[in-house]
Amino acid sequence: MKITFLTIFFCLTSWLIQAQETQKLYLSGTGNDKTVNWDFFCTAGRNSGKWTTIPVPSNWELQGFGKYNYGFAKDSSRGKEKGLYKYTFKVPTTWKGKSINIVFEGAMTDTEVKINGKSAGAVHEGSYYAFRYDISTLVNIGTENLLEVTVSKHSNNASVNEAERKGDFWIFGGIFRPVYLEALPVQHIERVALDADAQGNFKANVYLKNSQLNQTVSAQIYTLDGKKVSLPITGKIMKGDGTVALKTFVNNPLVWSSEKPNRYKLIVSLLDQNKVVHTLEKKFGFRSVLVKQRDGVYVNGKKIKFKGVNRHSFWTTSGRTTSKDISLLDVKLMKDMNMNAVRMSHYPPDDHFLDVCDSLGLYVMDELAGWHGNYDTPTGTKLLKELVAHDENHPSVIFWINGNEGGHNYELDGIFPQEDIQKRPVIHAWEAFAGFDTQHYREYNYGIGNYDNGHNIVMPTEFLHGMYDGGHGSGLEDYWEKMWVSPLSAGGFLWDFVDQGIVRTDKNGILDTDGNHAADGIVGPYREKEGSYFTIKEVWSPIKFEAKEITPAFDGVLNIENRYSFSNINECTFTWKLKQFDNKNLIEKAGSIVPPNIKPSEKGSLKLSLPTDWQAYDVLYVTAKDFNNQEIFTWSFKISLPEKIAINIVKKEGNEKAKIVEIDSLYTISVKDLEVSINKFTGILQKVKNKQGVIPFNNGPIVQEGATNFRNFAYQFDKDNLIITSTFDRKNSYNTLQWTIYPSGWVKMKVNYFPGDYFTTFFGVNFSFPETAIKGVEYMGNGPFRVWKNRMKGNQFGVWQKEYNTTETGEIPFVYPEFKGYHSNMYWCKFIGKEQAFTVVTENEDIFFRLFTPAFKQDPYKNYQINFPNGDISFLQGIAGIGSKTNKTENSGPMGMKNIYYDYEKEPARAKELILYFDFLGNK
Question: DSSP readout, 735-779?
Fold first, then answer.
């Protein structure tokens, strides 16, 4: 190969540029998806007392060492459980003469570091903060070096344990974030702190080490694709200066927000007589954050409502050790739910999580650890400085939180603005502080009282506690609609993002959420989506659809509201789709919609150009996508009503009429291959049989929260239809039941009934069907997820199939959607048994069908309630809400309250009417 002068020049230039930048050498892996084995010795618990290896980064409990601890558990190994690490490494010969640091992004909890048998510095106390030691004089260049690290799971500093180790979350040990070496010129840039506001004002503090008199600092702002944005910014180093301040102005910058996360990069260099000594690159965004007391939070001049969630750094097989891919997955899921904010509970996150929040757009509340205890002032000051220096340049970080739920050290509040060039607001989670009321889990009425009658900005940093299936979506619509219109509301943060179910390597790999302590997520441990996920997605959609009934008079106009802060609706795209469900033949048409010009916070209309035969279809879907082509939501609007569908499905005619025989207490009716037995005194269905055998559907209808007082039955024929009817009596049999058996074999049930009170938890009728006999269902209605009275949003209308499962939300096996529960807007349902199937059709609107009863979960606060009727399968016209760990269902807003029946005891009293058609012969 011919080596030219040009080749040598480019190689030398490349080497010089590399030499001027900070160089990094990982000693560990970069996350749970890429690790490096180190020698390891655990001092207590499983697999202790022997040298072996462990992947780094990791939490050692998940690797089979030590003892699993949840924060509430009394730990008998406290102070005894330590991890001893050893690793040998070489320093590149090209690093000779450079300053060399070893950097730990996070270790739990007290960390002592030695290089070649010598201490690298003081023991670091605190788990979640990046720290470094200058080991320039301790390492040998070009030969092997020995790194020894001792990590104590619990700290010798009592305040660290109070802040970090005594919390409502899993307690782990180990080097759980990456470890690397960095090489810098002896004279170098230690840190750059940036502040760039929405008007284009830019300033930076450049912190230098070993700089010399008359050296200069030069900086240039670029777009991310390398275009220069400003003239070079320069600052001269004067005698004794360790910091150089830079300022400039950029005309009309593209600002950063959660909707449009525009970013730039700054390249800053230390120069010695125009020779580049050291260069750093930092990404940032132009944006302004302003808190107006007794008003709200403004980002880039716009008042913001935070649609947020709390997030722990967590993965089921690796504990607090995550990866860039997990960060990307989590932020994408949050954005998919139309969230715009995330709170770092209860400690700072991995740097790659903030990188993703920067690039995809989420407002971040970054938190100094403290659950119900706090750091002492010397320790807290040190960790606070590490937090700020590590996270300060992320445009996503717009608030600091000084501890959670009483874990506030008030002496630290004034240090945040001293350390932070941007002077971000500081709040206390769960406290009235600095003009904010962030109290957690407020009851609906109490919160509304604060919005309407208080003076602080109301921003609960935790609300609607999502234990199991309660909270999150349940009650959210009530809370959010009030938050949206209340001037003092700045939104809030749901608790929390993920069920923290960890793999127990000491219990054959089971997933453990420590009972109800960690089953609080919107998604499961592997990010399985629960029903509340889709409720949140709809309720927090930045496009709000006004409720609309589609009738023959529909003119194609749907009213909408723009709930974006910065974006016009015309930046989105819309499509429509019509579907007709003809048994299993799906017919559909689709088209696009011209997006209207609707500015933020304004209302307007979508105008659909539908085909002339649109009324022949059963449902209209409208899908909105944002300016990144990501789905905002798909809304469904029913066109066909249940009566129309029932007419098309139920076949009444046949070649023979039913035969009826009275034996003892039974009417036994036979038609075609069907035999039905009904109690002639009560009207209750006793037995269903066809030529394939018995269908174990019986013991109904039993009126729920009302009297099953059907009496005095008689039968007659209306042409070929056999009708069995009870007699109305205002005192003793005011609820009535009528059975009709058609020559086709279809059976009609008509119940007229009065709920038992003004206020009812649920009302309708129940039947028995053994759970052991069910295989699945196929139904037309809203799906695929179950609903609660206070969680109706998030589903679409269509035809759905569900296989039987025993999933209990937040517990193994995390198979969603759950099978058991309430399902809304039933038109028909095919119950698929293990032996044979039968179908139920209704001509009533707004019917719920209930599938069995989920297991009741014990809640020490007795707020989380699972209320279900008697029996196994129910057809209801009112269902129950669900509570959360912290609030009963009736305290979560109007939707969580009981059903109200206004016509009870009025003259003339009007009964509820429920009509069902049964196909026990498989005609459908």
Answer: SEEEEEE-TTS-EEEEEEE--SSSEES-EEEEEE--GGGEEEEEE
Q: Are residues 614 and 478 in the same domain?
A: no
Q: Are 468 and 496 in contact (CB under 8 A)?
A: no
Per-position b or e across 553-563, b if 16+ CB within 10 A of its CB: ebeeebebbbb
555 Cβ contact partners less than 8 Å away, ≥ 6 residues apart: none
Which residue from 872, 863, 845 is spatially nearest to 698, judged by alpha carbons? 872
Cβ neighbours, 10 Å, residue 102: 24
Q: Looking at residue 234, which CATH number applies to its domain?
A: 2.60.40.10
Same domain for 605 and 737?
A: no
Answer whether 540's CB lies under 8 Å from 337's CB.
Answer: yes
Rounded Cα–Cα distance for residues 461 and 257 (Å):
20
Q: Which of 253, 284, 315 lies at the terminal end of a domain, its last residue? A: 284
Domain contains 13? no
Q: Which domain holds residue 553?
A: 543-639
Q: How many domains does the chain have?
A: 6
Q: What stretch of H or E contains 137?
A: none
**What's the pLDDT at 17?**
47
Claim to verify: residue 215 and residue 364 sit in the same structural domain: no
- Kindly state whether residue 148 falls inside one of the protein's structural domains: yes
The pTM of the full predicted model, rounded to 2 decimals, is 0.95
Is residue 78 a part of any domain in this protein? Answer: yes
> CA 25 → CA 37, 179, 361, 510, distances in Å?
16, 9, 30, 37
CB-based burial label for 862 (10 Å; 0-12, 13-18, 19+) = exposed
| Cβ atoms of residues 893 and 883 within 8 Å | no
CA distance 502 to 514: 9
Q: Identify the residue whose tokens are 């449009």.
A: 260
First and final C-alpha spacing in the chain = 79
> Are 354 and 472 members of one domain?
yes
* Residue 637, phi then psi, degrees to nearest 5: -125, 120
**What is the CB neighbour count within 10 angstroms for residue 214?**
11
Mean pLDDT by 10 residues, the chain (924 residues): 35 46 96 98 96 98 95 69 97 96 97 98 97 98 96 96 93 97 96 98 96 90 95 86 93 97 97 93 98 98 98 97 98 98 97 98 98 96 98 98 96 98 97 95 86 91 95 96 95 97 93 92 96 98 97 97 98 97 77 97 97 95 96 98 96 92 95 96 97 96 96 95 95 95 97 91 97 97 97 97 94 92 98 96 98 87 91 97 94 94 60 96 74
Q: How far is residue 646's CA from residue 102's CA, in Å, rounded to a whole number?
A: 73
The token pair at 678 is 């009904």
Task: For residue 250, give the 3-state DSSP assignment.
Answer: coil
- Same domain assignment for residues 416 and 457: yes
Which helix (H) or strand (E) segment is 383 a member of? helix 377-391
The residue among 485, 515, 539 that closes a domain is: 539
